[in-house]
Amino acid sequence: MSETRSLRVALLGAGTVGAQVARLLLEHHDELAARAGVPIDLVGIAVRDVTATRSVNLPAELLTTDAETLIQGADIVVELMGGIEPAKSYILAAIGSGADVVTGNKALLAEHGAEIFAAAAQVGAEVYYEAAVAAAIPIIRPLRDSLAGDHVERILAIVNGSTNYILDRMDRFGDSMEDAQRVALELGYLEADPTLDVEGFDAAQKAAILAGLAFHTSVPAAAVHREGISAITLADVESAREAGFVIKLLAIAERITDEDGLEGVSARVHPALVRRDHPLATVYGGNNAVFVEAEAAGPLMFYGAGAGGVQTASAVLGDIVSIARRHIAGGVGVGESVAADLAVLPIGAAQTRYRISLDVEDRPGVLAELAGILADRGVSVETLRQTANGAVTADGLATEADGGTATLVIGTHTARDAALAAAVEALSASGAVASVRSVLRIEGA
Amino acid sequence: MSETRSLRVALLGAGTVGAQVARLLLEHHDELAARAGVPIDLVGIAVRDVTATRSVNLPAELLTTDAETLIQGADIVVELMGGIEPAKSYILAAIGSGADVVTGNKALLAEHGAEIFAAAAQVGAEVYYEAAVAAAIPIIRPLRDSLAGDHVERILAIVNGSTNYILDRMDRFGDSMEDAQRVALELGYLEADPTLDVEGFDAAQKAAILAGLAFHTSVPAAAVHREGISAITLADVESAREAGFVIKLLAIAERITDEDGLEGVSARVHPALVRRDHPLATVYGGNNAVFVEAEAAGPLMFYGAGAGGVQTASAVLGDIVSIARRHIAGGVGVGESVAADLAVLPIGAAQTRYRISLDVEDRPGVLAELAGILADRGVSVETLRQTANGAVTADGLATEADGGTATLVIGTHTARDAALAAAVEALSASGAVASVRSVLRIEGA
Q1: Which member of A148, A329, A339 has the closest CB to residue B334?
Q2: DSSP class of residue B60?
Q3: Tell me: the pLDDT tens digits for A180-220?
Q4: Among A89, A111, A81, which residue's Cα sits nearest to residue A13?
Q5: Which positions bind NADPH (chains A, B) (predicted)?
Q6: Is B12 annotated for ligand binding?
Q7: Once rounded to an integer, what is the mean pLDDT over residues B58-75?
Q8: Other CB atoms closer than 10 Å to residue A277's CB: what's the count?
Q9: B409: how many CB neighbours lie within 10 A of its CB?
Q10: The domain containing residue B226 runs over which residues?
Q11: ipTM
Q12: Based on the domain organization, do B131 and B153 belong to the same domain?
């Protein structure tokens, strides 16, 4: 089945990433041909407007608005348009016409991945998507191939550079959430509509993809529990730092067993306290990192740029060359393994630890009452720190009582999230508690 | 070309890694079959002595001393014996009989990789070797596939856990080199004969493999410049720390251009000063990390355990499942890309920076003389720090002259290694220089 003719690549989209892919395919044509063993020819670029101004000067004769026709003649269709439609229809058309597909479309894969992979498997086509998670960082191939014989136990990942940049500014420069978001917007780390990033939607799509790969299960993005960072305050960040933590927005995928003994997957995105000596704590700025714990391999971390046109283009090019080599080798696509087909369990089944900060009445009996509330829900206390509220004295200690309230910081042992959440609800309903200052999960400890 | 029968795996060697591979293949048989799409059956384990006691209890009926016969009936031959012979002959026999090969044998690949890959390419067999570099850390596949469309510019890697453990103990616990080696030996980080690790032979083999992959060139281990860590003293480590560095044994592969404009590969192993804020500085204990700088992807880092039976077995299992999937898909092996076929350039052509500590005469004119020596060889000075030798005063400054000598620490700008080495030689021959305390390269800045 060896073929020596050239491979025809159709590119859909010429935005930040697409334009760089086109440039690299053209500039490095001969070198890529030597590496792949076959010339890889860019035969056309489908765009909405052929006259638009672009970051990269692309040959006018390659531009077309007729994506359907372009797809029909292609061996490899590279979809970098983003969005659900028409990207999905184009990808299915490409698969239907016998082409292999490269895409960086995380939203599409998180929502319709199962359908697309099934269509590809039926005809033996490949769908590669290294660019969909963590830009240039190789993580899809390591999970799909390198760890194919291992048992992944847990993934803790920083996969949204915008929110990492914001939280890092708050931690390292003392910015408020508002200021950090403003700077992130000015520097291009954040879109004009920051919701997708700040509220964790983007990270949840990536969590779905990582969880599916790691646990050989189809995990839709809608099944991912999602909390964003908008409620995080500078006071939270500073309190975390004093206790030896940094706050990161984590995409988490874990193999867990629920209370009834059902084995399943927990996939969730939320801000979390990470110990300063954890490898993820050193992921600064807009960078991404995927920390994987596997039964045999132990802890692994993959680190690098989480965004950027040319960085993401690197991942796309790697997929194109890999597919080209498969064409030389012959054979059909292998398809995604969903052999385990585990249940996706609700957030309540996850096992985690909470750090709870409360304003409480500073009188005898309060501690016993609150400890009782926790114990009743099966939550045991690991650390407890009470500080009287009031003016700070010259030696830095807060000793002057302020209307008889104190701040109580409770670090719990590991428990089900449902029990921890119920305990927080009961605490906040207690007459002894004036207010709940913050509740954050501790991960990676 | 789809096949649905089972795949027969022959395992050569049942040492620390081999025994774990056997255990995982047997214990996870059904799960691996589901993931690969075909049952993967361990049909035999070739060992020297079937009666030997092993770390894992292996079924006696699988053990054999007849490797040749075992190989003949296998679809996949997994070579974990180590050493050059008979491992090489067995691998060539396996390829000759139509089997694919998985090996973790870095010494063999570094010395005879080109011959083995050529034999495999001729018959369309696969040779996978993720376990040969950095144990469980996926690095072969990311370099070969994920970065296949990018230009790798430089790899800085900590690939020898033993020496990293020793240097880390010196840095974090203030051990002498002798004490650190003793502890490493006691804890099993170091072999009874530490030469392979301490003198950089092991790292040089891995540097050869990484350089070959990254630059699509065949790089023999003998072409790798190699310096070990045995000359590193606690004083070096402490002096480095004061200046904001940590000393690491690095395996380096770089694409460089020599003075005549010849493009080539620099592959070298030596201790180097790494800035404390570089990601490699946080690689503690026996861990490994591979830091890759690519033109499009930017900086990437791959981090994890660098040794261990079960950790390394994870990489081997990943290779076995990948090969099994290829059997399902059909097609032939792609072979290694040596399309670039660059020259391997000598250490003198490398561009680096030196940090040179000298004991010098403390008299007028010395600085001018030494600066002249450097300038004559085209080496320019970036930082200079002179401290009078003598007792330290109460405020921590060394001010009392000690026989009129001073310590001079020179940090250079980037220059060819040949020029830097010549400058050091000329400095040490100067009458103004009492002794050369240490010379270390600065990397990753």
Answers
A1: A329
A2: G
A3: 999 999 998 988 889 999 999 999 999 999 999 999 999 99
A4: A81
A5: 106
A6: yes
A7: 96
A8: 10
A9: 18
A10: 142-305
A11: 0.90
A12: no
